[in-house]
Amino acid sequence: MRILVVDDEESILVPLEFLLKKAGHEVALARTGAEALRLLEEGPFDLLVLDLMLPDLDGFAVLERLPQGRKPRVLVLTARGREADRAKALALGAEAFMAKPFGIQDLLAEVQRLSEGL
Amino acid sequence: MSPALLLTGLFLYLALLFLVALLGERRGRALVRSPWVYALSLAVYATAWTFFGSVGRAATQGASFLPVYLGPTLVLLLWPFLHGRLLELARAHRLTSWADYLFLRYGHAPLATLAAAFLVLGLLPYLALQLKAIAQAFLFLSGERAPMADVALITTLFLALFAILFGTRRLDPSERHEGLVLAVAFESSVKLFALLLVGLAALFFLGNPFLEVPKRPELWPLLLPPEGLPGYLDWVGLTLLSGLAFLFLPRQFHVSVVENVNPGHLPLAAWAFPLYLLLINLPVLPLALLGRIHFPQTNPDLFVLALAQEAGPALALLAFLGGVSAATAMVIVEALALSILISNHLLSPLLLRARALGSLLLWRRLSILAVMLLAYLYFRLAGEAYALVAMGLISFAAVAQLAPAALLGLYWKGATREGALAGLLGGILLWAYTLFLPALARSGWLPPVFLEGPHPLLRPEGLLGLRGLEATTHGFLASLLLNLGLVVGVSLFTKREAPVEGRTGEVGALAGLLSRVLGSEAEAAFLKEAQDLPGPQAAAKAEVLLAGALGPATARLLILSVTEKAPPEALLEEAARESKEVRAYARALEEARRELAQAYERLKALDQAKDEVLAAISHELKTPLTAVRALAEILEAHPDLPEAERRRFTGLLAKEAARLSRLVEEVLAYAKLQAGIPLRLQRLDLREPAQEALALVAPLARERGVLLEGRLPHEAVQALTDRDRVLQVLLNLLQNAIRHAHSRVILELTPSGREAFFYVQDDGPGVPEEKRPWLFEPFQSFAGGTGLGLYLARRLAEALGGRVFLEAGEGARFAFALPLEVDHADPGGG
């Protein structure tokens, strides 16, 4: 599965990349919303792991601008555990929502669930 | 005595009068403001009829001349009740005559016009009498029989000129004429002085006449009191008549009310004027007796002159001039007063309707000239006839017809317009029937039926068969009673008219009207006073100004053109007060509502801020916590990680742990700031905390690949301040800069005056315009900071008496200004 991980924090990207690769996925990284959209244009991804707090375009903006056609499934990560954020993200097409801080097992289980639905 | 000498004397006297009047208009203005001048000007009451006629009357009828002076004396005793009120009214409404008052009191009615016309007609003979007195005296002294008219015509024209010059110089709404008043006061002094001197001289040269009286029985009746009821009635009637005349003669109203400069003059005038009357009457009886004794064949009205001639030509000339002064003063003031009546009540309304108002001054001057010429004409036509001789008291009786409407109007609220009109009309008709027409008939100008009446009960000089009363007393009492009865009776049966509706208008429009009618001076005066007045008051003020110059009827007509109906004043005030109260109440409510809303907003903001602090802190904690947990779990689950990978993970772990601890530091600092921990001041070199701050953020800068540069001065920068807080401010600013910088952060320290400036500059994108307002608000992070840094920096700096602000320029350049001495300790930062 091709996975794109979007987060502005190096300390999040590094462990996620390691874990997802370990789980046998192909992983690409993006630090900003713009970078993420550019990568999404270039090639199709099966899963988008998206942080909502980004320096330029935030996670919601990325969700709104997802390229038409083969859309990836979206797992949203956020430190803002607010219900409104979850609802908004789901409304914009996200399929799963994880509040920080999360355990790596939970994350991997969620990714697994999403990949099985493919 | 030669006519040339008399004429010279007359002209010299008149020239002197001019000079006095000029003095009054120029340097003598202060003199005119004296209460003595006011009291003397009231003596315009004493005319040639007093000067020559009193002696004549005393010589034929005894002491019956006295009531003519008792009346005014008694009326003046009432001044606190009457004149005070009158002056107040006149001042407020710029009244120039009783006709003005009638208009004011009874509203728009033919009443004032009728009164004005009647006064003019009723007083013409009285004016003629004065001209005759001058002519008669001139002829008597010059010893000629004709032409009697010439000197009278010259005098007439001269007095008209005088009245025009000093009475209509300008259109002054207050109608004050200082020169004229001073001239009148001067003339009053001259006539008193002349009569007293003639009396003394006659006594000196001809001896005490009272010693002669016992030998002459024909003189006895002159010294006896009046007999029987008719005699007493004559006295009372005459006293009342002269009292009313003193009040209602236009010239008396003019000098006592219009020309009054200060109501405070009244108390003095109230005794000084009666004293004047007493003094001028002292010589009357002796002169009358001496005349009867020494000149039994002479006209008694000429006794004064005849007796003065006995004492020599100089005294004769003085007596002549005394008579002239009495006559001219009366003529001048009466002509002026009548001209104001004519122009205000007869001419202006007509001219205004005909849209031919033109120059008011011109009309007034023409009125004076017309009045004078009519008086002259009357004198020429009537001559020696009874119609002229008896006219003094008949004019008095005419003037008295104003009394019921005016006095009841002042003191009785129930008097109505219809009542006043009925009374005045009835009084005038009965006056004409009982006094005026019989006088004409007696002169032979009307058939005798006007003397006898159509029926014995309707005999003009003895209505209802009355006999024994003097014709004047009878006619006066009858007409006054009818007048009074009609005013009261009709008023009781008619409804009070609604008060004249108020008008409201724009100050600008009113000023324009005043400027058109009265000139720019009046406009300026009006604007000065009325600028801030509400419409109705401004309209009233403009109307008063116009009324003074044009008369109330014309003023009202003019005002109607630029104003509109105002709601009734009482209602208006009520509405104003109510709406004012309502407005105040609404304002208070609105104020309370706003305060409540503000308090609510503040509370909500505080509450929200607390929530936000919690949310922000938890949010800021979650990212490093996530990383720490993930990294720790990875390390735990994969003990066999390659060394490079392992080192990378532990490096990240350390970094996130440091971030957590920094976060905790900031939250603690924030909590400390909120709790208001006091400052710990110490003397230090500011370079030292700067260096420490640079050292502390060096790892962060290194990690971010940012070059850190300190530009500190070579000399120490001594300051008395709280070291920890300065350090905290610098740390926060530096961390913020490093987070936003591309490659470089500079910390600069510059002492400047009593302050030290720290500058923290980065080469990042700078602060977007739209973010600036919230830059220093808590939890407004937009670049992965805690959101507390800048807020804390500013609050801490403020606590030290300094400030933190963003400077304009490339990248972001924050300045931290710190006073070298903390002069006010504010631990909480305000």
From TrEMBL, chain A:
Residues 2-115 form the Response regulatory domain. Keywords: DNA-binding, Phosphoprotein, Transcription, Transcription regulation, Two-component regulatory system. Gene3D superfamilies: 3.40.50.2300. GO terms for biological process: regulation of DNA-templated transcription. GO terms for cellular component: cytosol; protein-DNA complex. The keyword Ribosomal protein does not apply. Transmembrane segments: none annotated. GO terms for molecular function: phosphorelay response regulator activity; transcription cis-regulatory region binding. This is Transcriptional regulatory protein YycF. It comes from Thermus aquaticus.
